[in-house]
Amino acid sequence: MSTAKPEQRLIFGEVAPAYDEFRPSYPEGLFDAVVEFGGLAAGDRALEIGAGTGKATAGFLERGLQVHALEPTAEMAAVARAKGIDVEETLFEMWTPPRAFDLVYAAQAWHWVHGADRYLRAAAALGPGGTLALFWNKGREWTGSLGAANDAAYAEHAPAMGRSTGWNLDWVGTEIDACPELETATVHVTTWSRAYTRDEWIALLGTHSDHRILPAVQRARLHAAVGDAIDRHGGRVDVVYDTTVYLSRRV
């Protein structure tokens, strides 16, 4: 029996149904910002890189775009197909666009795309003036006594992880600006919130790749400690999300 660890960016297939149920979607303001920036209209062609279960796909389909989605994990692709999404199972790095797209986007996925030429590849999939949109949901760090209790749980059971509710995305704009085929990046942020019960939050943590790669016993102890912290603070959490999108056009 193989004991090889799965590649971290492909580990989400282990929890595809839970990913679809518990991962947050994206706010309407995000989709509106992308459509407005790109001057997009119903019938325009969009390419999605790393579609997962289609959490972001739906917002563009609702606006009439024709979305062709790339997703390398079979289990995630199966959930998306069940929603009627056109999914091709492949890595973006191994794919050649058959036509030019009006929009190329990645939701919570671009940091998993490998290759120094990834921006050139994205630009090559766009028609002249086409739009690139790279976006992420970033949950704000918890503060006060709940934040301290959460930090203590990680310090005890997964000290290498520390706070796991957000990360710096400045590198995205810097890398877009360095690509000669793309215009200077524009950044748009939409802020919104979502409430989670204790069980919903623990289920959400179970879909995060840094939690998935922990040994099962360690992961269970960490989640139990985080759950206990939430229970001591009312049994639910209100998470503020900043959805940040980096926008550019092909030169």
> Beta-sheet strand percentage?
15-25%
Number of helices: 10
Low-confidence stretches: 1-5
Structural class: alpha/beta
Quaternary form: single chain
What percent of the residues sit in helical stretches (DSSP H or I)? 25-40%
The helix/strand series, from N terminus to C terminus, equals HHEHEHEEHEHHEHHHE
Number of strands: 7
Largest sheet: 7 strands, mixed
Classify the fold: give the CATH topology of the domain at 8-141 and 166-195 and 240-249.
Rossmann fold
Commentary on this structure:
Helices cover 36% and strands 24% of the residues. It has 251 residues and is an alpha/beta fold. It has a domain at 8-141 and 166-195 and 240-249: Vaccinia Virus protein VP39 (Rossmann fold). Helix 8 packs antiparallel against helix 10. It starts with 15 loop residues before the first helix and ends with a strand. The model is unreliable at 1-5 (pLDDT under 50).
Task: Provide a concise account of the structure shown.
The protein has ten helices and seven strands. With 251 residues, the chain is of the alpha/beta class.
Which key features would you list for this structure?
globular; disordered N terminus; single chain; Rossmann fold; alpha/beta
Write the layout of secondary structure elements.
Blueprint: H1 16-22, H2 28-38, E1 45-49, H3 57-61, E2 66-70, H4 74-82, E3 87-88, E4 101-107, H5 118-124, E5 126-139, H6 144-157, H7 170-178, E6 186-197, H8 198-205, H9 209-212, H10 216-231, E7 236-249
Parallel strand pairs: 1-2, 1-4, 2-3, 4-5
Antiparallel strand pairs: 5-7, 6-7
